[in-house]
Amino acid sequence: MKFLGFCSFASLLWLSVIPTLAVLAVSFLFAGGLSVLGGILAFIKGVVPNSLFENITFVFFTHEISGIPGLLAGVLAGIVFTALGLLCWKSAVKIVVYLQEKLRKVKYRCVKN
């Protein structure tokens, strides 16, 4: 009976929680990279007046920022998004390791009895 309960719990995690955490991890890591890139472009737009960057806007909440504040906002957002991505990825890996350990214990108990 414990094996059936474990299989139900494990299938729930495999079908919903682990894929969600994996997709969130990739999305947050991608967003972190784009935030840093946006900050760099905002810095370039603020420092170098060039017609190439005229149409690029870096909006932080409701204000358009450029120059050093744009760079700082982009890097800060990139750090936050990257940390969230790494947290989601490590959580997914820990869940997989936890399920593997539990499966070994349940199989050992079934074979032992």
Give the secondary structure arrangement, pairings included.
Layout: H1 2-47, E1 59-60, E2 63-64, H2 68-112
Antiparallel strand pairs: 1-2
Distance between the termini: 13 Å
What is the number of beta strands?
A: 2
Helix content: over 70%
Whole-number average pLDDT?
85
Low-confidence stretches: none
* Major β-sheet strand ordering: 1-2
Order of helices and strands: HEEH
Shape type? rod-shaped
Using the CA coordinates, give the radius of gyration: 23 Å
Report on the biggest sheet.
2 strands, antiparallel
Structural class: mainly alpha
**Number of helical elements:** 2
Characterization of the model:
- The protein has 113 residues and is mostly helical.
- Helices cover 81% and strands 4% of the residues.
- The chain has helices spanning 2-47, 68-112; strands at 59-60, 63-64.
- It has a two-stranded antiparallel ribbon.
- The longest helix is centred in the first third of the chain and has 46 residues, at 2-47.
- The mean pLDDT is 85.
Summary keywords:
113 residues; mainly alpha; two-stranded antiparallel ribbon
Q: How do you describe this structure in short?
A:
The protein has 113 residues and is mainly alpha-helical. It has helices spanning 2-47, 68-112, and strands at residues 59-60, 63-64.
